[in-house]
Amino acid sequence: MAYTRKDVSTLTRTERRRFVDAMLELKRRGEYDEFVRMHLEYYTSDGEDGLRTAHMTPSFLPWHRQFLLDLERALRRIDASVTMPYWDWTRDRSTASAPWTDDLLGGNGRRSDHRVTTGPFAYAAGHWTIKEGVTDGKALTRDLGRAGAPIALPTKAELDRALADSVYDVWPWDSTVTKGFRNKLEGWGTGGGSASWLNHNRVHRWVGGAMLGGASVNDPVFWLHHAFVDLQWYRWQRRHPGARYLPARAPGPSDEQHDRVVARDQKLPPWDVTPAALEDVSRVYRYA
Predict the structure, then answer these.
(1) I need a labelling partner for 271 at 20 to 30 A (CA). Which of 117, 132, 150, 277 fits?
(2) Mean pLDDT across the stretch 119-144?
(3) For residue 78, what is the domain's CATH number?
């Protein structure tokens, strides 16, 4: 039977506590840091050689869908009542609203060093030490809204522009494409400043701190953010019936993207699953 993922702002006090407790237990067991390591390993840009599976590529959405499913299953082994909530950043846009409350993810980092000092994931609480990262810092950090160079969260209108594109992705299947739903949602834009970061990408930069770069999984908001991104794929499919993941076939030997992107029916590393198999998850979960 399919379970339900809820808007984080609608969780009851008990649901919030059980979600937080399951996350902390996963961290205590050492399992959580495996997810950080995996994301770091597969954070490959289109400026590098080799296969891209997680970012700047059509498989951005199915890769993170499977990644999120793995984390959610790990949480549910601890507490079967837990499902991954999503953060609707087009609506909950305040640094004082969910999920930035003391009983969920805690708030912003302090001005001096961006260290988070409130909530269960604060370093001083003793349960959330950063062990896998791009720096030696041990504390979770955030810079909500980037006080030094302010940016705004994406709006519903900006998200709708991505959802309106009826084509999943286009050649050359990377960060440079200006057409296609995938990159309009992933958010590799053109130009400079905040306008160059769209939707998914701009949210990472709005949160700042640990949410920047390949080790962004160190901030638990990563999962709530990606659950909302996953919901957009779910909505896009319903807005454009019959639209499918692209490319349908792998680029040929003469194509510059040969062996660099995953086609619809190819295995999606590191799992034994294809993008096609991840297009319909209605038997696994649904969104409230």
Answers:
(1) 132
(2) 94
(3) 1.10.1280.10
Q: Which domain holds residue 218?
A: 3-287
What's the pLDDT band for 195 if we cut at 50, 70, 90? Answer: confident
CA 20 to chain centre: 18
The residue whose two tokens read 């993170």 is: 64
What pLDDT shows up at residue 133? 83
The 10 Å Cβ neighbour count of residue 254 is: 6
Q: Give how many domains the chain has, as a whole number.
A: 1
Q: What share of the chain is helix, strand, coil (3-state, %, to 5)?
A: 35, 5, 60
Say if CB 202 and CB 151 are below 8 A apart: yes
Name every residue whose Cβ is closer than 8 Å to that of residue 170 and which is 6 or more positions away in sequence: 177, 179, 180, 246
What pTM does this model have?
0.97
Task: Tell me the C-alpha distance between 262 and 251, whole Å.
Answer: 9
